[in-house]
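Can you give me the bound-state structure? Components:
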Amino acid sequence: MKGRVASSVLALAAGLGFATAALADGEFAGVTIEAKLIGGQQYEALYARIADWEKATGAKVNIISQKNHFELDKEYKADIAAGTTNWCVGSNHSSFAPQYPALFTDLTALIPAESIAGFVPANITAATIDGKLTMLPRAQFDVSALYYQKSLYTDPAKAEAFKAKFGYDLAVPETWDQFRDQAMFFAAPPNMYGTQYAGKDEAINGRFYELVVANGGKMFNDDFTPAFNSPAGKEALQWFVDLYKAGAVPPGTTNYLWDDLGNGFASGTIALNLDWPGWSGFFNDPAASKVSGNVGVAPAPKGSAGVRTGWSGFHGFSVTEGCATKEAAASLVDFLTNEDSQKLESAAGPLPSRTAVWEYVLEQAKGDAYKSEVLAAFQETAKTAFPVPPTPYWIEAGNLIFPELQAAILGDKTVDQALEDASAAVDDLMKENGVY
Amino acid sequence: MSTRKFPPWLLLLLPAFIIILAVVAIPLIFSLYSSFTPYHLTRPETLWKWTGSFNYIKAATDVNFWKAFGRTVLLLTVALNLEMLLGLGLALMVSKVTHGQRALRTAMMFPMMFSPILVGFQFKFIFNDNVGLVNNALQSLGLTDVAIPWLVDANLAMFAIIFAEVWTSTSVFAILILAGLFALPQDPLEAAKVDGCTPWQSFRFVTLPFLMPFIYIAMAIRSLDVARAYDIVQVMTNGGPARRTELLWTLIGRTGYVDARMGYANAMGYIAILMSIGFTVYFFLKLQSARRELGMGG
Amino acid sequence: MATASQHRIKKRVLKTAHFIGLFLAMALICVPGLWVVLNSFRPTIEIMAKPPVWIPQDLNLDHYRAMFGGAGEGGVPVLTYFRNSLIVSITSTVIALLVGMAGGYAFARYNFKAKGVLFVALMASRAVPGVALSLPLFIIFARTGIIDTHFGLILVYVAMNVPFTIWLIDGFFRQVPKELAEAAEIDGCTRWQAFWRVEFPVARAGIASAGIFAFLTSWNEYALASQLTRSTTSKTMPVGLLDFTSQFTLNWGGMCALAVLMIIPALVLTFLVQKHLIAGLTFGGVKG
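Here's the bound-state model for the whole set.
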């Protein structure tokens, strides 16, 4: 491990045209890196490794902020406003990153090219904003795949009833239309629901977005005029409305966030659940989940255009533009996202963002049927995954869109009306900000 | 001597004024200024662009803003009155207890120990439609066989929020009114009894007028603190779904921090501040007139 | 005779109604709170069970054990948060009381122009919603380097608590007849001595009640603390609750365990001083 650090330091030094001084351990002796790192149990195991980096380089890391994601986002914005951006390393997320184009520096020149080449290319593309590589992804890649209760598909009575009603065989859904049929079929409220979706805040927005894409549409045109008020958009929103109207989802679903989904599926009351990789361990843990041992995982279904849904995002680390010791900061970022770091982090369940670590994780999972199934499903989904549209106004636009989506789902507005209102509001926003 | 220049009262009040100046007044001036600019957090240069009353006009012509405004006033009115009535009832019942009152009083104040953010999470789980305590209880008791969407239905969602808010804050009313009951002079009550008043009459014409100042104090304190409900609402529904529970605070918080449009948020914030101050001043005037009626001076 | 027994029946009915009413009210008050306490001892699978598990099958200390465990095992630096909360709450309460005593004394003992307006302005400062303050405060604090320090948070909480403290204490000082203090001064005491010997003892109950309100406000405050603290050097317990959330998950059992640690000290303190609290509020604001 030390060797790896030394070699990356060497490469870094060579890349910058530094002389031999960089070869020795303790290259950054005396440097203190101030870091703002995402807090929370899932993310903190990795930080134990910081001590190793400190030992190897002689630098010190001072964690000056440790908050959850949304609080950290607020803090960055407040930092930009206050002009206090001379700390060095910060946790970042692909969905939030476009909001702060000037905060973080371009890592291309600071990180050895061979290190960057080790990442999954799609992730590097998504981390590149306006030609700047704003962050290096850690092993926290997120895309949603389909979790389901296996026993529902082995019951001959159910299979027969389903075929009689819908005219095709009951099997794990491959399209969102099949998914809708089956969700309605399995629903028996209040103790069993066909599915559920996160209907709150940016969550419903993201789900809508990926379904629009899967149906062959898009959220924005190339000039960022809204494009979701389209047949594909209407079809996507109608899907949510249908499930809600049919009572196939819990009636509170428009107020659900991710934690509600996880707990709901684990309670055994949900048949089909599109959810994140982070839950895979939880769902199959007898101490936490009633469906443990009965969980199947399949790639995300496809929309009417034959495209899989695949709204994805990942956590990473960035270096600020105001950092005085960018080389040392970049070395820390590189270290926290290198193969060993990703192996450590992905051992607990999250998906890696390095090609070699994907292979390693798949290899490790051999012999564990459930884990292999999980990884296969997510790997397949990840192949066609896509990040949020690259506009700094994605979050703001989302805050205008989601209440309208909810209004349509709850029946306050028609699908057409809701999308028209949302589209007009987003159009106003873009115009007010001079986007076009 | 500085005392010659400063009268003693000013000297004594100085620490209070300095602290409030630093923590409240200066930030407020900044907020006021920025409300006249298109200030966007991630683009600091926007702070120097003066747009006059643009943000205020935008807020004043936004239907969603006025809906949130109306809902906030509704929430305040309903919650404060409910808390007052329930607090009064609770205080009356507790004051009649002779044994174990100390423990009872502590239990009565139990919700005050709960941080509003915790209350938000707590009631989010209690009112969850699928695995929540309330629906589970109703279903187990056979009272209903459907999952009631407490946090989604237009009326029930406001009810759930008011319930959480009332749960946390009734204690404040109860404890203040209880204090009033303890201070209640016994002579007029005895006199009323002798005069043949029914218990209701003596409550209505003797006890209640005496309690009014306590009630207004509680109202004033609570009206100062209601913005704390922001934490509760933000966690429970965040103003959703479909803006059904949107309050001024959730709207402002989201606009200011998530959308980063601080200038616009501050303009809306100023309208909210005026409303809060209006409530507070109203209860103060009420308090003073109640004191005057009781001859307590003011 | 008939009226006497009627009277007795009526009395009994009233007594039963009183008991039932009180029981229901207390149940409504305590159940949501005790449910949190109970959840801190239950495994997640049981909390979220459907159909519900009404009689706890498995009570254990797992959430507590995890909370005190190391990073990566679900550990949260609880003790540090606890210490921060304690330092911030106690210091800010004490300072608010001192500042409030000075201010309350000024309002009670001196006459000056614009007294009424000043008083209401002071109260109104408390009515400003935190949302309107948090960003400017952040900018000022970040620029002056007191962000993420105990000092910064204490300053804010003092400002939050001073208006109410002044108000309550003002009422108490007014109760002490001016002549009493003057008599003490004639007896050779300085004004300062007269204050401590005559006026302070009377106001003690009021100070205690103002203190408990100030303490609970600081102890439970979240919105501003979440902006003005960043790391373990100053994060308080309400902010620490959010450590149990990540982007997709929320560990409700763990959160309950931390909540219990927050509630216990507040509850003990309230139990100890609630006698003064009642006495304090009785005379405080009303006679002002």
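A couple of observations. The first helix of chain A runs from residue 2 to 15. DSSP finds 18 helices and ten strands in chain A.
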